[in-house]
Protein backbone atom coordinates (compact mmCIF):
# COMPACT_ATOMS: atom_id res chain seq x y z
CA UNK A 1 0.00 0.00 0.00
CA UNK A 2 1.38 3.42 -0.96
CA UNK A 3 2.54 5.72 1.83
CA UNK A 4 -0.26 8.27 2.27
CA UNK A 5 2.26 10.89 3.45
CA UNK A 6 4.02 11.04 0.08
CA UNK A 7 3.27 11.46 -3.64
CA UNK A 8 1.34 14.69 -3.04
CA UNK A 9 2.71 16.45 -6.10
CA UNK A 10 -0.61 16.26 -7.95
CA UNK A 11 -2.53 18.30 -5.40
CA UNK A 12 0.18 20.41 -3.77
CA UNK A 13 1.86 23.05 -5.87
CA UNK A 14 5.56 23.75 -5.72
CA UNK A 15 6.35 26.48 -3.20
CA UNK A 16 9.82 27.81 -2.44
CA UNK A 17 10.34 29.85 0.73
CA UNK A 18 9.06 33.38 0.15
CA UNK A 19 11.69 35.88 -0.97
CA UNK A 20 11.94 39.24 0.70
CA UNK A 21 10.86 42.07 -1.59
CA UNK A 22 13.65 43.36 -3.81
CA UNK A 23 13.62 46.88 -2.34
CA UNK A 24 13.92 45.42 1.16
CA UNK A 25 16.66 42.88 0.51
CA UNK A 26 18.89 45.22 -1.49
CA UNK A 27 19.34 47.38 1.59
CA UNK A 28 21.30 44.69 3.45
CA UNK A 29 23.46 41.60 2.98
CA UNK A 30 21.13 39.14 4.71
CA UNK A 31 19.88 36.06 2.89
CA UNK A 32 16.99 36.87 0.59
CA UNK A 33 14.68 33.91 1.39
CA UNK A 34 12.57 33.68 4.49
CA UNK A 35 12.84 30.27 6.22
CA UNK A 36 10.18 27.61 5.87
CA UNK A 37 7.92 26.97 8.81
CA UNK A 38 7.75 23.31 9.82
CA UNK A 39 4.33 22.75 8.27
CA UNK A 40 5.47 24.16 4.92
CA UNK A 41 8.64 22.05 4.89
CA UNK A 42 6.59 18.93 5.62
CA UNK A 43 4.10 19.86 2.90
CA UNK A 44 6.77 20.39 0.24
CA UNK A 45 8.75 17.28 1.21
CA UNK A 46 5.56 15.22 0.82
CA UNK A 47 5.46 16.16 -2.88
CA UNK A 48 8.30 13.67 -3.48
CA UNK A 49 7.21 10.82 -5.76
CA UNK A 50 9.56 8.32 -4.05
CA UNK A 51 10.49 7.07 -7.52
CA UNK A 52 12.22 3.73 -8.00
CA UNK A 53 15.31 5.33 -9.56
CA UNK A 54 15.88 8.60 -7.68
CA UNK A 55 17.48 10.82 -10.32
CA UNK A 56 17.84 13.59 -7.73
CA UNK A 57 20.21 11.35 -5.80
CA UNK A 58 21.99 10.12 -8.91
CA UNK A 59 22.71 13.68 -10.07
CA UNK A 60 23.85 14.91 -6.66
CA UNK A 61 27.67 14.77 -6.53
CA UNK A 62 27.41 13.57 -2.92
CA UNK A 63 24.64 11.07 -3.75
CA UNK A 64 22.69 12.36 -0.79
CA UNK A 65 19.84 10.12 0.36
CA UNK A 66 17.33 12.72 -0.78
CA UNK A 67 14.10 10.66 -1.09
CA UNK A 68 14.68 9.14 2.35
CA UNK A 69 15.19 12.41 4.21
CA UNK A 70 12.31 14.00 2.31
CA UNK A 71 10.07 11.18 3.57
CA UNK A 72 11.31 11.63 7.13
CA UNK A 73 10.67 15.38 6.87
CA UNK A 74 7.13 14.79 5.59
CA UNK A 75 6.54 12.57 8.61
CA UNK A 76 7.78 15.24 11.00
CA UNK A 77 10.86 13.19 11.95
CA UNK A 78 13.26 16.10 11.49
CA UNK A 79 16.10 14.91 13.71
CA UNK A 80 16.27 11.64 11.80
CA UNK A 81 16.06 13.56 8.53
CA UNK A 82 19.02 15.69 9.62
CA UNK A 83 21.08 12.65 10.66
CA UNK A 84 20.50 11.02 7.28
CA UNK A 85 21.38 14.22 5.45
CA UNK A 86 24.56 14.67 7.50
CA UNK A 87 25.60 11.05 6.85
CA UNK A 88 26.77 11.96 3.34
CA UNK A 89 27.66 15.65 3.68
CA UNK A 90 29.78 17.68 6.08
CA UNK A 91 27.92 20.90 5.32
CA UNK A 92 24.35 20.22 4.13
CA UNK A 93 22.97 23.61 5.16
CA UNK A 94 25.68 25.30 3.07
CA UNK A 95 24.99 23.18 0.00
CA UNK A 96 21.26 23.76 0.54
CA UNK A 97 21.93 27.47 0.26
CA UNK A 98 24.42 27.72 -2.60
CA UNK A 99 24.20 24.59 -4.76
CA UNK A 100 22.71 25.20 -8.21
CA UNK A 101 19.88 22.77 -7.52
CA UNK A 102 18.24 23.75 -10.80
CA UNK A 103 21.17 22.07 -12.58
CA UNK A 104 21.57 19.13 -10.18
CA UNK A 105 19.01 17.45 -7.92
CA UNK A 106 15.95 19.58 -8.63
CA UNK A 107 16.72 19.84 -12.33
CA UNK A 108 16.54 16.05 -12.53
CA UNK A 109 13.47 15.54 -10.34
CA UNK A 110 11.05 13.28 -12.26
CA UNK A 111 8.04 15.51 -11.54
CA UNK A 112 9.86 18.71 -12.56
CA UNK A 113 8.48 18.99 -16.10
CA UNK A 114 4.77 18.65 -15.34
CA UNK A 115 4.44 19.65 -11.70
CA UNK A 116 7.58 21.54 -10.70
CA UNK A 117 10.38 19.82 -8.83
CA UNK A 118 10.44 19.14 -5.13
CA UNK A 119 12.17 22.05 -3.39
CA UNK A 120 15.06 19.86 -2.29
CA UNK A 121 17.62 22.55 -1.48
CA UNK A 122 15.23 24.57 0.65
CA UNK A 123 14.20 21.51 2.64
CA UNK A 124 17.85 20.50 3.10
CA UNK A 125 18.64 23.97 4.45
CA UNK A 126 15.59 23.88 6.72
CA UNK A 127 16.27 20.54 8.39
CA UNK A 128 19.94 21.35 9.11
CA UNK A 129 19.22 24.86 10.40
CA UNK A 130 16.56 23.26 12.61
CA UNK A 131 19.16 20.77 13.81
CA UNK A 132 21.52 23.57 14.84
CA UNK A 133 18.71 25.40 16.63
CA UNK A 134 17.72 22.28 18.58
CA UNK A 135 21.19 21.03 19.49
CA UNK A 136 21.03 17.99 17.23
CA UNK A 137 24.37 18.85 15.61
CA UNK A 138 26.72 16.96 17.89
CA UNK A 139 30.45 17.47 18.40
CA UNK A 140 32.74 15.58 16.06
CA UNK A 141 32.94 11.99 17.33
CA UNK A 142 36.46 10.57 17.23
CA UNK A 143 36.31 6.82 16.75
CA UNK A 144 39.95 5.87 17.40
CA UNK A 145 43.25 7.30 18.64
CA UNK A 146 45.61 7.68 15.71
CA UNK A 147 47.23 10.86 17.01
CA UNK A 148 50.70 9.36 16.49
CA UNK A 149 50.18 10.25 12.83
CA UNK A 150 49.49 13.79 11.68
CA UNK A 151 47.98 15.26 8.55
CA UNK A 152 48.57 18.71 7.07
CA UNK A 153 45.86 20.28 4.92
CA UNK A 154 46.73 23.29 2.76
CA UNK A 155 43.57 25.30 2.21
CA UNK A 156 40.58 25.85 4.50
CA UNK A 157 37.89 25.85 1.83
CA UNK A 158 35.14 23.23 1.53
CA UNK A 159 37.45 20.45 0.28
CA UNK A 160 40.01 21.05 3.01
CA UNK A 161 37.45 21.41 5.79
CA UNK A 162 35.61 18.26 4.73
CA UNK A 163 38.82 16.25 4.64
CA UNK A 164 39.84 17.65 8.02
CA UNK A 165 36.58 16.52 9.59
CA UNK A 166 36.68 12.99 8.16
CA UNK A 167 40.31 12.45 9.17
CA UNK A 168 39.75 13.88 12.63
CA UNK A 169 36.88 11.42 13.08
CA UNK A 170 39.42 8.68 12.29
CA UNK A 171 41.56 10.02 15.14
CA UNK A 172 44.46 11.65 13.28
CA UNK A 173 46.09 14.86 14.42
CA UNK A 174 44.97 17.39 11.82
CA UNK A 175 46.50 20.78 11.01
CA UNK A 176 44.92 23.17 8.48
CA UNK A 177 47.05 25.88 6.86
CA UNK A 178 45.37 28.80 5.13
CA UNK A 179 46.45 32.12 3.67
CA UNK A 180 43.48 34.04 5.08
CA UNK A 181 42.82 35.19 8.63
CA UNK A 182 39.55 33.22 8.76
CA UNK A 183 38.86 29.69 7.60
CA UNK A 184 36.28 28.91 4.93
CA UNK A 185 38.03 30.02 1.75
CA UNK A 186 35.54 31.27 -0.83
CA UNK A 187 32.68 30.35 1.53
CA UNK A 188 33.93 33.14 3.79
CA UNK A 189 35.39 35.72 1.44
CA UNK A 190 34.10 34.93 -2.05
CA UNK A 191 30.37 34.32 -1.58
CA UNK A 192 28.25 37.28 -0.43
CA UNK A 193 26.18 37.16 2.72
CA UNK A 194 22.89 37.42 0.84
CA UNK A 195 23.58 33.90 -0.44
CA UNK A 196 25.43 32.55 2.61
CA UNK A 197 25.43 34.42 5.89
CA UNK A 198 28.83 34.13 7.50
CA UNK A 199 27.72 32.75 10.88
CA UNK A 200 26.67 29.60 8.96
CA UNK A 201 30.29 29.04 7.91
CA UNK A 202 31.85 30.13 11.20
CA UNK A 203 29.81 27.70 13.30
CA UNK A 204 31.04 24.84 11.10
CA UNK A 205 34.62 26.00 11.52
CA UNK A 206 34.20 26.37 15.29
CA UNK A 207 32.85 22.82 15.52
CA UNK A 208 36.05 21.57 13.86
CA UNK A 209 38.21 23.70 16.10
CA UNK A 210 36.47 22.27 19.16
CA UNK A 211 37.24 18.78 17.81
CA UNK A 212 40.94 19.51 18.15
CA UNK A 213 41.74 20.46 14.56
CA UNK A 214 44.50 23.07 14.61
CA UNK A 215 44.09 26.04 12.27
CA UNK A 216 47.13 28.01 11.12
CA UNK A 217 45.75 31.26 9.70
CA UNK A 218 47.65 33.88 7.67
CA UNK A 219 49.94 31.03 6.65
CA UNK A 220 51.35 30.95 3.12
CA UNK A 221 53.18 27.88 1.89
CA UNK A 222 56.36 29.13 0.27
CA UNK A 223 56.57 32.09 2.64
CA UNK A 224 56.06 30.61 6.11
CA UNK A 225 57.19 27.10 5.23
CA UNK A 226 58.06 25.26 2.03
CA UNK A 227 56.10 22.25 0.89
CA UNK A 228 59.14 20.12 1.74
CA UNK A 229 59.12 21.41 5.32
CA UNK A 230 55.43 20.56 5.69
CA UNK A 231 56.08 17.09 4.30
CA UNK A 232 58.69 16.58 7.01
CA UNK A 233 56.28 17.86 9.63
CA UNK A 234 53.37 15.56 8.71
CA UNK A 235 52.77 11.95 7.69
CA UNK A 236 50.55 13.03 4.78
CA UNK A 237 49.57 16.29 3.12
CA UNK A 238 46.53 17.47 1.20
CA UNK A 239 46.66 20.38 -1.22
CA UNK A 240 43.19 21.92 -1.43
CA UNK A 241 44.00 25.53 -2.26
CA UNK A 242 41.30 26.08 -4.85
CA UNK A 243 42.00 28.22 -7.92
CA UNK A 244 42.50 31.94 -7.39
CA UNK A 245 44.30 33.31 -10.47
CA UNK A 246 41.79 35.60 -12.23
CA UNK A 247 41.36 35.24 -15.96
CA UNK A 248 42.30 38.39 -17.80
CA UNK A 249 40.27 40.65 -20.07
CA UNK A 250 42.56 41.17 -23.02
CA UNK A 251 41.46 44.66 -24.07
CA UNK A 252 43.13 48.09 -23.81
CA UNK A 253 42.62 49.68 -20.40
CA UNK A 254 41.85 46.43 -18.57
CA UNK A 255 44.46 47.17 -15.91
CA UNK A 256 43.81 50.86 -15.34
CA UNK A 257 42.41 52.62 -12.28
CA UNK A 258 38.76 51.88 -11.66
CA UNK A 259 39.06 48.32 -13.00
CA UNK A 260 39.14 45.63 -10.31
CA UNK A 261 39.13 41.86 -10.06
CA UNK A 262 35.91 40.16 -8.97
CA UNK A 263 37.44 38.32 -6.01
CA UNK A 264 39.13 41.47 -4.71
CA UNK A 265 35.77 43.26 -4.89
CA UNK A 266 33.88 40.46 -3.13
CA UNK A 267 36.58 39.97 -0.50
CA UNK A 268 36.55 43.68 0.33
CA UNK A 269 32.75 43.58 0.67
CA UNK A 270 32.82 40.52 2.91
CA UNK A 271 35.59 41.98 5.06
CA UNK A 272 33.51 45.11 5.52
CA UNK A 273 30.68 42.86 6.65
CA UNK A 274 32.96 41.40 9.33
CA UNK A 275 33.86 44.92 10.46
CA UNK A 276 37.45 44.67 9.21
CA UNK A 277 39.49 47.63 8.00
CA UNK A 278 39.66 47.29 4.21
CA UNK A 279 42.71 48.74 2.42
CA UNK A 280 41.70 51.03 -0.46
CA UNK A 281 38.07 50.60 0.57
CA UNK A 282 36.89 53.44 -1.71
CA UNK A 283 38.26 51.64 -4.75
CA UNK A 284 36.01 48.65 -4.04
CA UNK A 285 32.91 50.63 -3.08
CA UNK A 286 30.22 50.89 -5.75
CA UNK A 287 28.18 53.53 -3.90
CA UNK A 288 26.97 56.20 -6.33
CA UNK A 289 28.95 54.71 -9.21
CA UNK A 290 27.94 53.40 -12.61
CA UNK A 291 29.18 49.80 -12.53
CA UNK A 292 29.90 47.41 -15.39
CA UNK A 293 30.56 43.75 -14.62
CA UNK A 294 32.14 41.63 -17.34
CA UNK A 295 31.24 37.92 -17.24
CA UNK A 296 28.28 35.59 -16.99
CA UNK A 297 29.05 33.06 -14.27
CA UNK A 298 27.94 32.88 -10.66
CA UNK A 299 30.84 35.11 -9.60
CA UNK A 300 29.57 37.81 -11.94
CA UNK A 301 26.10 37.42 -10.42
CA UNK A 302 27.60 37.84 -6.95
CA UNK A 303 29.33 41.04 -8.10
CA UNK A 304 26.31 42.70 -9.70
CA UNK A 305 24.10 41.95 -6.71
CA UNK A 306 26.78 43.18 -4.29
CA UNK A 307 27.15 46.43 -6.26
CA UNK A 308 23.39 46.98 -6.03
CA UNK A 309 23.54 46.59 -2.24
CA UNK A 310 26.43 49.02 -2.01
CA UNK A 311 24.22 51.67 -3.59
CA UNK A 312 25.49 51.80 -7.17
CA UNK A 313 23.87 54.37 -9.45
CA UNK A 314 23.49 51.69 -12.14
CA UNK A 315 24.74 48.15 -12.71
CA UNK A 316 25.19 46.54 -16.11
CA UNK A 317 26.38 43.00 -16.78
CA UNK A 318 28.05 42.38 -20.15
CA UNK A 319 28.05 38.79 -21.33
CA UNK A 320 29.24 37.61 -24.73
CA UNK A 321 26.62 34.88 -25.14
CA UNK A 322 22.86 35.00 -24.68
CA UNK A 323 20.79 34.20 -21.62
CA UNK A 324 20.25 30.56 -22.61
CA UNK A 325 24.00 29.93 -22.90
CA UNK A 326 25.30 31.64 -19.79
CA UNK A 327 27.08 29.43 -17.23
CA UNK A 328 25.61 31.04 -14.15
CA UNK A 329 22.48 29.92 -12.36
CA UNK A 330 19.29 31.18 -14.00
CA UNK A 331 17.84 31.66 -10.53
CA UNK A 332 20.66 34.05 -9.74
CA UNK A 333 20.00 35.99 -12.96
CA UNK A 334 16.34 36.28 -11.99
CA UNK A 335 17.26 37.55 -8.51
CA UNK A 336 19.62 40.11 -10.07
CA UNK A 337 17.00 41.36 -12.54
CA UNK A 338 14.49 41.76 -9.72
CA UNK A 339 17.05 43.85 -7.86
CA UNK A 340 17.66 46.24 -10.77
CA UNK A 341 20.61 44.81 -12.69
CA UNK A 342 20.58 45.38 -16.45
CA UNK A 343 21.91 42.47 -18.51
CA UNK A 344 23.43 43.25 -21.87
CA UNK A 345 23.49 39.95 -23.72
CA UNK A 346 25.73 39.21 -26.70
CA UNK A 347 28.17 41.97 -25.75
CA UNK A 348 31.91 41.99 -25.08
CA UNK A 349 34.28 44.79 -24.07
CA UNK A 350 36.60 46.24 -26.71
CA UNK A 351 38.35 48.85 -24.56
CA UNK A 352 38.08 50.58 -21.19
CA UNK A 353 39.00 54.24 -20.74
CA UNK A 354 37.76 57.61 -19.58
CA UNK A 355 35.01 56.27 -17.37
CA UNK A 356 33.37 54.16 -20.03
CA UNK A 357 33.49 50.73 -21.61
CA UNK A 358 33.41 50.54 -25.37
CA UNK A 359 31.79 47.24 -26.31
CA UNK A 360 31.03 45.25 -29.42
CA UNK A 361 27.92 43.28 -30.16
CA UNK A 362 28.35 39.54 -30.56
CA UNK A 363 26.51 36.79 -32.39
CA UNK A 364 26.51 33.06 -31.84
CA UNK A 365 28.26 30.90 -34.43
CA UNK A 366 28.65 27.16 -34.75
CA UNK A 367 28.64 24.92 -31.68
CA UNK A 368 32.05 23.95 -30.36
CA UNK A 369 33.24 20.61 -28.91
CA UNK A 370 31.42 21.39 -25.65
CA UNK A 371 28.12 21.82 -27.49
CA UNK A 372 27.93 25.56 -26.83
CA UNK A 373 27.73 27.95 -29.76
CA UNK A 374 30.85 30.05 -30.00
CA UNK A 375 30.47 33.86 -29.83
CA UNK A 376 31.67 35.87 -32.81
CA UNK A 377 32.14 39.62 -33.13
CA UNK A 378 29.44 41.45 -35.04
CA UNK A 379 31.55 44.20 -36.63
CA UNK A 380 28.52 46.29 -37.53
CA UNK A 381 27.48 47.09 -33.97
CA UNK A 382 29.33 48.91 -31.17
CA UNK A 383 28.13 50.83 -28.14
CA UNK A 384 29.49 52.48 -25.01
CA UNK A 385 28.48 52.10 -21.39
CA UNK A 386 29.32 54.55 -18.63
CA UNK A 387 31.59 52.87 -16.09
CA UNK A 388 33.04 54.48 -12.99
CA UNK A 389 33.83 50.98 -11.73
CA UNK A 390 34.54 47.95 -13.94
CA UNK A 391 34.62 44.49 -12.34
CA UNK A 392 36.30 41.64 -14.21
CA UNK A 393 34.51 38.35 -13.47
CA UNK A 394 35.67 35.90 -16.12
CA UNK A 395 36.55 33.02 -13.82
CA UNK A 396 39.71 31.64 -12.24
CA UNK A 397 42.68 29.49 -13.15
CA UNK A 398 45.24 27.69 -11.02
CA UNK A 399 48.17 29.56 -9.55
CA UNK A 400 51.73 28.33 -10.15
CA UNK A 401 51.83 26.09 -7.10
CA UNK A 402 55.18 24.40 -7.90
CA UNK A 403 56.74 27.87 -7.99
CA UNK A 404 54.84 29.26 -4.99
CA UNK A 405 55.48 26.18 -2.86
CA UNK A 406 59.14 25.77 -3.83
CA UNK A 407 58.27 22.31 -5.15
CA UNK A 408 59.36 21.99 -8.80
CA UNK A 409 58.61 18.24 -8.77
CA UNK A 410 54.92 18.82 -8.04
CA UNK A 411 53.28 17.72 -11.29
CA UNK A 412 50.68 19.88 -13.02
CA UNK A 413 48.47 19.58 -16.08
CA UNK A 414 48.61 21.89 -19.07
CA UNK A 415 45.94 24.00 -17.31
CA UNK A 416 48.12 24.41 -14.22
CA UNK A 417 45.89 22.22 -12.03
CA UNK A 418 47.57 19.51 -10.00
CA UNK A 419 48.04 16.16 -11.69
CA UNK A 420 46.87 13.25 -9.56
CA UNK A 421 46.55 9.49 -9.81
CA UNK A 422 42.76 9.28 -9.92
CA UNK A 423 42.81 5.87 -8.21
CA UNK A 424 44.51 7.29 -5.12
CA UNK A 425 44.17 11.08 -5.51
CA UNK A 426 47.91 11.34 -4.83
CA UNK A 427 50.07 13.85 -6.66
CA UNK A 428 53.49 13.17 -8.17
CA UNK A 429 54.96 13.54 -4.66
CA UNK A 430 54.54 10.52 -2.34
CA UNK A 431 52.21 11.25 0.54
CA UNK A 432 50.95 14.51 -1.00
CA UNK A 433 47.32 14.36 -2.12
CA UNK A 434 45.13 16.95 -3.86
CA UNK A 435 41.40 17.60 -4.08
CA UNK A 436 38.83 20.19 -5.05
CA UNK A 437 39.19 22.97 -7.59
CA UNK A 438 42.99 22.71 -7.68
CA UNK A 439 42.41 19.36 -9.41
CA UNK A 440 39.09 20.00 -11.20
CA UNK A 441 39.49 23.64 -12.09
CA UNK A 442 36.84 26.12 -10.95
CA UNK A 443 33.84 24.04 -9.96
CA UNK A 444 31.03 23.77 -7.42
CA UNK A 445 31.22 23.69 -3.63
CA UNK A 446 29.34 20.39 -3.60
CA UNK A 447 32.05 18.79 -5.76
CA UNK A 448 34.71 20.10 -3.35
CA UNK A 449 32.85 18.48 -0.44
CA UNK A 450 32.63 15.24 -2.42
CA UNK A 451 36.35 15.35 -3.20
CA UNK A 452 37.12 15.99 0.46
CA UNK A 453 35.15 12.91 1.43
CA UNK A 454 36.87 10.78 -1.22
CA UNK A 455 40.42 11.94 -0.57
CA UNK A 456 39.99 11.38 3.19
CA UNK A 457 39.34 7.71 2.41
CA UNK A 458 42.48 7.45 0.28
CA UNK A 459 44.62 9.29 2.84
CA UNK A 460 43.35 7.00 5.60
CA UNK A 461 44.33 3.95 3.55
CA UNK A 462 47.78 5.43 2.90
CA UNK A 463 48.35 6.29 6.56
CA UNK A 464 47.19 2.85 7.75
CA UNK A 465 49.55 1.17 5.29
CA UNK A 466 52.44 3.31 6.50
CA UNK A 467 51.62 2.60 10.14
CA UNK A 468 51.49 -1.14 9.43
CA UNK A 469 54.83 -1.00 7.60
CA UNK A 470 56.39 0.89 10.49
CA UNK A 471 55.06 -1.66 12.98
CA UNK A 472 56.47 -4.56 10.94
CA UNK A 473 59.86 -2.86 10.71
CA UNK A 474 59.92 -2.42 14.49
Automatic annotation (TrEMBL):
Q: What is the lineage of its organism?
A: Bacteria, Pseudomonadati, Pseudomonadota, Alphaproteobacteria, Sphingomonadales
Keyword 4Fe-4S tagged: yes
Query: FAD/NAD(P)-binding domain spans which residues?
Result: 151-452
InterPro entries in the cross-refs: DPD_II, FAD/NAD-bd_sf, FAD/NAD-binding_dom, GltD-like, Helical_ferredxn
Q: Where is the Dihydroprymidine dehydrogenase domain?
A: 26-135
Query: Under which name does UniProt file this protein?
Result: Oxidoreductase
Q: Which is one Pfam family of this protein?
A: Fer4_20
- What organism is the protein native to? Sandarakinorhabdus glacialis
Per its record, what are the GO molecular function terms? 4 iron, 4 sulfur cluster binding; metal ion binding; oxidoreductase activity
Fetch the PANTHER family from UniProt.
Answer: GLUTAMATE SYNTHASE [NADPH] SMALL CHAIN, GLUTAMATE SYNTHASE [NADPH] SMALL CHAIN-RELATED
What keywords does the record list, in alphabetical order? 4Fe-4S, Iron, Iron-sulfur, Metal-binding, Oxidoreductase
Q: Which gene encodes it?
A: gltD
